[in-house]
């Protein structure tokens, strides 16, 4: 794609090629080397914009940017127990191996022989005979739940009762009421319960969040996103509109042939979300549309490796007919595009991996280590409040969609 910067970009100057090069250099190093010195992460919004190394700071993980955690705490020791030995647990273990503080302590499956095979292929130290034994192991600090969603509730509760922290695959539960019960149980036991919405930890998403905070595209008026699994598309609404309650949620369609939802935030704008059937070519693009520009996350939006920021040119803001769109005014937007390559192997499932861009799980894995090191019970990239808000929206959306894929 040709990058257009005509007339010169109003953002502080970084040529896209420079940015891509710098970030590529960072991301392709091993996790320790990828870390900037702690000092480099201490920043305010002003320094974010003014700093010489803005290119790195735009994608700084939110927990570090807010000063809640320290980059070096990817080395904080956490002994992981893997509950469920299916494809997603396999990809998770591969990423944990690259986190300096992670220990693959134990795993369990419904069938012990399956768990033994999984342990051998991933270098997991122990095999527990069943899930209950896994969560009871005193040498396990945190349980990763990679089973089907309908089982999450009983398994999360089992792990929490044993006093373990939990990272549970998205979606956390099948209803908001169940999710609320799980968060209440975690709070009562004083353990962390984190829903694994891994999208939130990708550098392209961190960059988008920082750009919105800086007002780069003005006021957000519309969010558009698509994905067959509703929770993925929906999570982009509170990311860019905040976790306050929407004024209306309407939906229609079916899981089999496709559906959609509009989430309206009175006086602010709306999220227009589509849920194409799995049997289609899925665009997997997120657009964040503002009064001064537009952000596109893609390649692919639920685990994006690219952000494109199109800025409305200043001349458009004063157009007499009140249309700020560059297209309506026959001018080109200023375009800045930054690619954040997922660590190799990336892209379509590479040999030995099960899902797309799944090596990007690493970003979430590192954040969990940093946040637990700091004594946090959640990661700021995806808080309990937001997770609950999304669960409520999912309940509403599912009222209008037959056979939805949550
Ligand atoms: N973050 C991400 O990128 C991804 C997240 N996910 C999420 O991960 C979770 C699992 O993914 P999904 O592909 O649906 O699951 P799978 O069909 O891969 O099953 C995962 C595990 O669930 C258990 N399981 C499967 N079927 C049954 C059953 N009928 N009865 C009891 N246990 C069963 C098995 O555990 P055992 O090994 O113990 O037998 C299995 O290994 C979901 O929450 C999904 O949303 C999925 C893909 C990607
Ligand atoms: O959660 C997921 O489930 C389906 C996959 O294709 C997708 O990449 C993954 O994020």
Automatic annotation (TrEMBL):
It catalyses: D-xylose + NADP(+) = D-xylono-1,5-lactone + NADPH + H(+). InterPro entries: Gfo/Idh/MocA-like_OxRdtase_N (IPR000683), Gfo/Idh/MocA_domain (IPR050984), NAD(P)-bd_dom_sf (IPR036291). SUPFAM superfamilies: Glyceraldehyde-3-phosphate dehydrogenase-like, C-terminal domain, NAD(P)-binding Rossmann-fold domains. Keywords: Oxidoreductase. Residues 78-195 form the Gfo/Idh/MocA-like oxidoreductase N-terminal domain. It comes from the Eukaryota. The keyword Oxidoreductase applies. One of its GO terms (molecular function) is nucleotide binding. The keyword Coiled coil does not apply. Its EC number is 1.1.1.179. Belongs to the Gfo/Idh/MocA family. This is D-xylose 1-dehydrogenase (NADP(+), D-xylono-1,5-lactone-forming). It comes from Symbiodinium natans.
């Amino acid at each position: 794609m040709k990058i257009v910067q005509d007339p010169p970009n109003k953002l502080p100057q970084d040529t896209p090629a420079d940015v891509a090069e710098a970030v590529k250099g960072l991301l392709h190093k091993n996790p320790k080397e990828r870390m900037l010195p702690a000092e480099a992460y201490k920043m305010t919004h002003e320094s974010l914009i003014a700093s010489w190394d803005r290119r790195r700071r735009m994608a700084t993980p939110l927990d570090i940017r807010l000063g809640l955690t320290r980059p070096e705490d990817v080395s904080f020791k956490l002994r992981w127990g893997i509950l469920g030995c299916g494809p997603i647990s396999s990809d998770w273990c591969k990423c944990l191996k690259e986190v300096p503080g992670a220990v693959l302590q134990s795993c369990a499956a419904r069938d012990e022989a399956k768990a033994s095979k999984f342990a051998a292929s991933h270098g997991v130290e122990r095999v527990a005979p069943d899930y209950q034994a896994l969560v009871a192991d005193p040498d396990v600090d945190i349980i990763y739940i990679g089973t089907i969603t309908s089982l999450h509730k009983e398994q999360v509760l089992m792990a929490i009762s044993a006093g373990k922290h939990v990272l549970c695959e998205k979606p956390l539960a099948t209803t908001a009421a169940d999710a609320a019960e799980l968060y209440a149980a975690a709070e009562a036991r004083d353990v962390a319960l984190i829903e694994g919405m891994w999208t939130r930890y990708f550098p392209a998403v961190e960059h988008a969040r920082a750009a919105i905070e800086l007002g780069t595209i003005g006021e957000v008026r519309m969010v558009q996103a698509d994905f067959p699994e509703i929770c993925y598309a929906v999570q982009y609404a509170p990311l860019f509109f905040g976790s306050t309650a929407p004024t209306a949620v309407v939906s229609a369609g079916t899981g089999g042939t496709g559906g959609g939802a509009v989430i309206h935030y009175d006086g602010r704008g709306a999220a227009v979300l589509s849920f194409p059937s799995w049997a289609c070519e899925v665009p997997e693009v997120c657009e964040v549309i503002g009064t001064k520009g537009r952000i596109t996350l893609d390649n692919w939006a639920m685990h994006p490796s690219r952000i494109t920021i199109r800025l409305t040119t200043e001349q458009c803001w004063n157009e007499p007919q009140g249309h700020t769109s560059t297209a309506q005014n026959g001018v080109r937007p200023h375009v800045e595009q930054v690619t954040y390559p997922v660590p190799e192997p990336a892209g379509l499932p590479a040999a030995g991996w099960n899902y797309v861009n799944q090596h990007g799980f690493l970003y979430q894995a590192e954040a969990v280590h940093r946040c637990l090191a700091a004594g946090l019970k959640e990661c700021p990239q995806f808080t309990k409040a937001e997770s609950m808000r999304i669960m409520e929206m999912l309940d509403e959306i599912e009222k209008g969609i037959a056979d939805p894929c949550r």
